[in-house]
Every structure is written in C-alpha cells, then in structure tokens.
Amino acid sequence: MPTAVSPADLTTTAPPAGVGRGERVSPRRLRAILSGSVGNLVEWYDWYVFSSFSLYFSASFFPAGDTTAQLLQTAGIFALGFLMRPIGGWMFGRIADKVGRKQSMTLSVLLMSLGSLLIALTPTYQTVGIVAPVMLLTARLLQGLSVGGEYGVSATYLAEMATSRRRGFYSSFLYLTLIGAQLLALGIQLVLQRVLEPTQLLAWGWRIPFVIGALLSVVALYLRHNLDETAAFTAQPETTEDQRGSLRVLARHPRAVFTVVGLTMGGTLAFYTFTTYMLKFLVNTAHMTPEAATNVCFLSLLVFAALQPVFGALSDRIGRRPLLIFFGVGGALGTVPLLTALSQTTSPLAAFGLLLLALVIVSGYSGINVIVKAELFPTDIRALGIGLPHALTVAVFGGTAEYLALWSKGVGHEAYFYWYIAGCIGVSLLVFLGMAETTRTSHLNTDPAADQLA
Fold it and tell me: In sequence order, which residues have a C-beta less than 8 Å from that of residue 88 and are 6 or more positions away?
C-alpha cells in the first residue's frame, strides 16, 4: 500500500492537450486527486443531507407546532453543529500538519459516518420526548467536528498534489465535490419523493439518506486509507516536526489568518444562502411545492458544480484576485435584488434563472477560495492555517445563515437578511481590493517539493 509519493512519480514531460505547456499529469497524481475528491464528496453528503431533509424530519424531533417554528428549531441545531467546526479545524489541522494529511482525512470520515448512523437510528420526539432532540444535537456536533477539519485538510491535500500551472483547476475539485454532495442529497430526495408517499417520507423515509450516508462513508474510508501522502509534507526537515501545526507557529502569520477570515466572511454566507438554505426559501417564502423547489435547486446546483473547474482554470490564467473582485462587486450589488425577485416569483423557470445568476456570481469565490487560502501559508502550518480561521468564520456567518433568515421572516422583515448578506460581501470586497495576487506570492512556489511537482 503506498504511503508517500515522490515528485518523480507524479510528473512526466510531454504536454498533452488541455494541460499547461511542458506539463503532463501522471495517472498516479490524478488517482490521488480523484480519490481525495470522492472522499470529500461522501463526507459533505453526510453534512448536507441534514439540511436537505429537514423539511421532512423536523416534526419528528420537536413538539407539534407551525412549520416555521419547527424549521427554526432544526436550523438552530444546524447552527450549533457549526460551533464544533473550529474545534475540528484546530484538531484535524494539527494532525494533518504534524502527522500527515492522509491520517487526518481518514479519521475525519470515521466521525462523520458515526454521526449519520446516529441520526438514522434516533427515535422520534413522540416516542422518547426530549431525548430525541438531544440525540440529534449530539450527532450534529460529531458531524460538525468532522467537517470542521475536512475543509482545511482537503484543501491542503489538493493544493499540494496539484501541478503548479493548474493549481486553481485541481483545487476547484473540492467545491466541485462539495456541490456534488448537495446534488447527491437532492437527487436522493427527488427519488424518494417519487417512490414514497409524503406521509411515508414524514414518518420514516427521511431516515434512508442517513443510512446511505453511513454506508458511503465506508467507501470514503477505503479511498482515504489508500491515499498517497503529499511530497510537500514528506519533504519537510525533521527539525521542524515539533512545531508543525501549532498555534504558536500560526500566530506568526496574522495577516494570512485575517485574510482567510475576510475571504470567507461574505463567501460562506452567500454560498450557504444560495445553496443550502435555498430549498427552504423557495418553499417557505416563494411558496413553491417541495417537489418544484427541489427540481429548481437540483438543476441550478448541477450547473454550479460544472462552473467550479471553469473558474479554477480561469484563475490559473488571469489570477485569483480579479475573480474575487467579480464576486465581491456582484454579490454586494446583486444580492438584494436577486433575493427580492426570488421571493416574489411563482415560476420555477424564472426561479431557476435568478438562482443560476446568483450562483455564477458566487463561483467567483467558491471556484478559487481553496487555492487562495492554500497559497497564504507555508507547509508546516498550511492545514491549520486554512482550517481554523475558515471554520471560525463559517461558524459565525455560514452556520447562522439559515437561522437568521428564518428569524427575519418570523419577525416580518425578511429583507433585513438580504441586506445583511450584501453588507458582509461588501466587507469581503474590501479585503479583495487590498490583498496581493496570490499566484505571485504563493508559499506553494517556495516549498522544496512544490517546485519539483510542475
């Protein structure tokens, strides 16, 4: 079983079509990137299926009441799961920087599968009372711990495995598979909506996707167990081992840490609003049927997923900063009118067009933020440097997005949430305008192994 990969194993010299001049990507490198990406898809599926099916299981875990109140309580648990993400970002980031990327990625998927299995087996509120929401919360906290470490470690792995000319393209696979996880969750929802009656979905059918998630985690565990370690990690000098992944080393990079926070603030809020929350928004605000809303979200996410490598490859040609500024300007100016129009539309086709426009704008962030953050940190602190500030920011802004949206609706001023998103993206835009072009300042360029990977 392979445990480490040398630069010589990953490259040859003849350039095939579609790859940077003087560069050919070996099957072994592609296998490593695809295996890491598939594992990422499975883990994020487990995370997103909670939100996708909350329309059906919220009544099973809370006392009877109006739909918005039950969704609000479920969204609260969704948000609490995000509070574990900074802990996961620290714990798994430290493991990845000190022990290895592969070991950290394998451990995180074990926790995720446990959380999914627990949700699938939890009895209803009508059966066990308060124990039901407590078990649901416990499972979500385990998933939050797992996914908190997933982003930083996967981002590090893909960036270090990518060739220098195609880092944006290959790193975009993280969000490609992350969106693919949402598509898988919605796809399973579409199938279940067609083969089960609504009463069956509400009673027990919602448990099926969580069982599927637990089973898929076995596949992810196998793939990650057989991953190659990155050459950038294995090439580090032995004398730095005790300092790898420590908060003391991270504190030496305050500008990079605050840049990650600024990058993530508006991006994560926009991402979760137009992807995770949008299904509830179309049902609860635009008053579409769950089936119509699921179709709109599924088709728009399908195009959104395809856009990620396009934007990643574009960043390899024109740089990361222009695309971030595109997102910042488009998001700050377009969020309020887009969400206002979506709230008033009754046509699934019109909703699809509006949502797709929003997701094109969001792609300026989602398609390239992984590589931007990886380029900010040296090898010995890269996983923790990406994971911890990202997880903290996502917990504050992404994790509360659904809750604040539903709260705003509950108090009769839903438009407050629209302006809140636009304002956060505006703050991120200021960061984009003030940052350097990371393709020129990338720490990946100075890694001893990174120069040999191209």
Answer: 108, 144, 145, 146, 147, 148, 149, 150, 387, 391
